[in-house]
User: Which sequence fits this backbone?
């Protein structure tokens, strides 16, 4: 390249300006060098509730065309959290994309040291069996004064912060139908 | 380019929940690191090529225990010294966006270990880190997000109202307003280098108590050595173009 006086002036001028501008104007543009499409562009958005503490913050789950979760972040429209999330809620992405994630039911029998893989059918039937057994054993039809109480004293129920009002109502209805009186809510713990 | 974007980090509201730290990892898809208990809640112990944001915990034991929380990250200097130094070493390794002022380490440009050392030393805040593959890494101001009008991941996540992001003028206004409010209670409250950087922290005590490099260690701008390098640089560029 031939250096004319004019281009030399231009360059040295740029050098002087460089102390302020920080560069000679030969920059790669960040858009080109760091060309990166927004990862969640066009992704499907599904709302959910954080599975951890009782605050129940809103989360948006971004999934790609194949249904794979590609991002999770706070839901700005959620009344509880208004888009904010703590460290645990923010890490929700790892709940899905995690090689250590449990994908099958694991069961450890009383006094056993081993986990066994079981099916969901087995687990649900087993739970139902145990609820029935415990309920039958601890059901009190009448109290000491002879009043009808129909109580199940052997089981306690804890509601979840991650269900909505209607689901919560159905859940407590189910517990009361069993005769439970120890009914708590995660939000109060 | 005095305008562009800026962060305002109001540490008086920070509870060190580390939501920002995890949000940064999550959005930028950085893997976790195996760490050991350092005797502090701070984890990981430092920034790395995979950790671009870290909440620093400093304890000062005096009459009463003071616990300082400092969500450390790249300050996106208005005139970034790292860019000046890197320019002569690995062209295009550090770029600055004209519109936002974001200072970005180009993931496509490799840099030699000894050159990286100089880049790191030029940073008044000890931010640049390098990966095993020879690529520098740090906070990108979530460039991909902000160019689409989204908030940076850390700001979006913050549940306490510590992290703010917006036009530089608005952020400076917010920072000064909050400083005036806080001054009434905390006499030593300061803003960290508000004229030189785009990530402005509000601290209520001596910045050194928060972190060694909470404020610039050396003055930002051109040191004598760097100025000399700049003068020599155009000649090198001629050869390049020619």
Assistant:
């Amino acid at each position: 390249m031939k250096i004319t006086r004019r281009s030399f002036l231009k360059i040295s001028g740029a050098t002087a300006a460089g102390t302020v501008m920080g560069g000679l104007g030969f920059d790669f543009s960040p858009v080109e060098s760091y060309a990166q499409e927004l990862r969640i562009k066009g992704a499907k958005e599904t709302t959910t509730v954080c599975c951890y503490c009782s605050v129940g913050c809103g989360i948006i789950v971004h999934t790609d065309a194949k249904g794979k979760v590609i991002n999770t972040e706070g839901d700005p429209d959620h009344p509880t959290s208004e888009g904010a999330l703590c460290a645990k809620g923010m890490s929700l992405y790892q709940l899905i994309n995690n090689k250590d994630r449990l994908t099958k039911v694991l069961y450890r029998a009383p006094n056993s040291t081993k986990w066994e893989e079981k099916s969901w059918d087995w687990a649900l039937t087993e739970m139902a069996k145990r609820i029935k057994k415990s309920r039958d054993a601890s059901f009190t039809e009448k109290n000491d004064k002879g009043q009808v109480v129909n109580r199940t004293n052997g089981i306690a129920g804890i509601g979840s912060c991650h269900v909505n009002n209607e689901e919560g109502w159905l859940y407590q209805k189910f517990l009361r139908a069993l005769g439970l009186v120890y009914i708590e809510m995660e939000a109060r713990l | 380019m005095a305008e562009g974007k800026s962060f305002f980090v109001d540490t008086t509201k920070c509870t060190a929940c580390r939501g920002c730290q995890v949000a940064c990892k999550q959005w930028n898809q950085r893997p976790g690191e195996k760490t050991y208990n350092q005797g502090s809640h701070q984890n990981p112990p430092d920034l790395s090529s995979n950790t671009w944001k870290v909440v620093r915990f400093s304890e000062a034991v005096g009459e009463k225990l003071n616990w300082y929380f400092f969500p450390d990250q790249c300050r996106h200097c208005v005139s970034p010294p790292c860019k000046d130094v890197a320019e002569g070493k690995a062209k295009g390794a550090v770029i600055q966006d004209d519109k936002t002022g974001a200072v970005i380490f180009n993931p496509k440009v490799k840099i030699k270990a000894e050159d990286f050392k100089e880049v790191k030393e030029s940073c008044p805040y000890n931010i640049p880190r390098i990966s095993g593959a020879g690529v520098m890494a740090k906070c990108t101001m979530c460039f991909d997000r902000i160019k689409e009008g989204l908030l940076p991941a850390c700001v979006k996540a913050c549940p306490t109202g510590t992290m703010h992001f917006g036009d530089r003028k608005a952020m400076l206004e917010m920072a000064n307003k909050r400083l005036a409010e806080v001054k009434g209670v905390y006499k030593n409250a300061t803003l960290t280098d508000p004229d030189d950087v785009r990530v402005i922290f509000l601290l209520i005590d001596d910045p050194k108590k928060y972190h060694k490099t909470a404020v610039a260690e050396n003055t930002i701008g051109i040191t004598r050595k760097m100025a000399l390098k700049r003068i020599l640089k155009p000649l090198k560029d001629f050869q390049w173009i020619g």
DSSP finds eight helices and ten strands in chain B.
